[in-house]
Amino acid sequence: MTRGKLILIEGLDRTGKSTQSEKIVKELGDEVVLFKFPERSTPIGGLINQYLTDRSFDLPPQSIHLLFSANRWEVNAKICSLLESGKHVVLDRYVYSGVAYSAAKQIPGMDISWCLNPDKGLVKPDLTLFLSNQDSSSLQDRDGYGEERYEKAAFQKKVRETFFQVFDAIPDDNRVIVDVTGKSIEQVFDTIMPLVRKVLGNNSEDYLYF
Ligand code: T5A
Ligand code: NA
Fold this sequence. Notes:
Layout: E1 6-11, H1 17-28, E2 32-36, H2 43-53, H3 61-84, E3 88-92, H4 95-103, H5 112-116, E4 123-124, E5 127-132, H6 153-169, E6 175-179, H7 185-200, E7 208-209
Parallel strand pairs: 1-3, 1-5, 2-3, 5-6
Antiparallel strand pairs: 4-7
The structure holds P1-(5'-adenosyl)P5-(5'-thymidyl)pentaphosphate and sodium ion.
């Protein structure tokens, strides 16, 4: 039995990650399982949700960083066993978001290497699609923007820069930057779906790890 493939959809806030992840899963049916991070339904995910949505619930940046990582570890065994059973897994955000959003805060000592450390050992995706936009101001018009903690234009700009620093620091031949500026949902989907299909057709058995 060939192991399943791990496909990651990454990007800035409101670039259409959840929309595209759901469309991929709809297209491929029950050969694929979707996970979204943060996974807010777990005990640790509940704390993360409270931190993101309730400004009166504050945590030190180091603590919330470690909770985001711990949340991925909470789900890791399930992801690995699905891949082993031959199912493909689609992730909506993962390690790159974890490192970029925390390192963008520019807290002394919390550099990219510190931020990546607790995620070391997590399975690395067979394909990472990073949804990128040239100008984040247009995204603010989309539904629901600005309700959560990190949804501020100045911080998003910092996060965008940090994502590219993270990409320089973490080599990954299976990462593709997809420019979604001015593209419709269907246009983005038509760009990424062939890349997904190509990776699902590989018969590589070895896992890569962060
Ligand atoms: N975070 C996350 C960390 O700090 N550390 C971590 O380790 C992790 C995992 C919540 C926050 O947590 C941070 C990052 C975030 O700030 P989240 O739950 O993924 O993370 O955030 P969400 O609010 O769910 O997702 P986003 O805001 O990032 O939105 P998406 O998923 O990129 O966008 P989506 O698909 O929900 O679309 C948003 C709207 O735009 C429309 C959609 O219909 C929808 O209305 N849309 C388009 N409209 C026009 N053209 C297109 N091409 C469109 N694509 C989508
Ligand atoms: Na989302």
